[in-house]
Amino acid sequence: LFDGSNLSAFDKVGDANWELMEKAVQANKGTGFLVSKASYGDFQVKAEIWVDDDANSGIFIRCQDPKMIDANNAYEVNVYDKRPDPAYRTGSIVNVAKPASTVNAGGKWNTLDITAQGSHLVVIMNGVKTVDVEHKGHARGPIALQYGAGIVKFRNVQIRTL
After folding, report:
1. How confident is the model over 119-143, as pLDDT tens digits?
2. How far is CA 156 from CA 42, 45, 65, 84, 96, in A?
3. What sign does the CA torsion over 144, 104, 124, 75 have?
4. Which residues are CB-contacts of 88 (< 8 A; sequence separation ≥ 6)?
5. From CA 81, how far away is CA 79, in angstroms rounded?
6. DSSP per-residue codes, 20-80
7. Do the beta carbons of residue 36 and residue 1 sit within 8 Å?
8. How confident is the model at residue 50, as a pLDDT?
């Protein structure tokens, strides 16, 4: 989906200041998403993400409305170390599954590996399985890279359909 050279696989939603820098895409103000033009059902998505300590980011999957994305109409795999309610902090799927392990993302490159196959959702962050859950909710939709706060960078975003 993203190899560092262009954003042709995505539509921009919101006013985040996404820009290409050093084989990554970065934002540090505004709010918004890079939403995949394609829709996915069963897949594995892998991405590298760098965030500062105050960042609010993540990857939304199976988005039902690509113009109005939130945790109610998509699965939000969170990257938010300092979330005010820590129950759905980094490594969780907001409102679906709390993280089994505490993983902090701030200040380094992290790997995020998300598999969605039917109702089975698995999140692996930096090699640690944080979520393994069955949930019947959203079956298909685009993928969205989120910018909410702080400094956020994504690189090497790859998807494989299952």
Report:
1. 999 999 999 999 999 999 999 999 9
2. 20, 10, 25, 29, 26
3. negative
4. 78, 94, 95, 98
5. 6
6. EETTEEEE-SS-EEEEESS-BSSEEEEEEEEE-TT-EEEEEES-S-TTS--TTSSEEEEE-
7. yes
8. 98
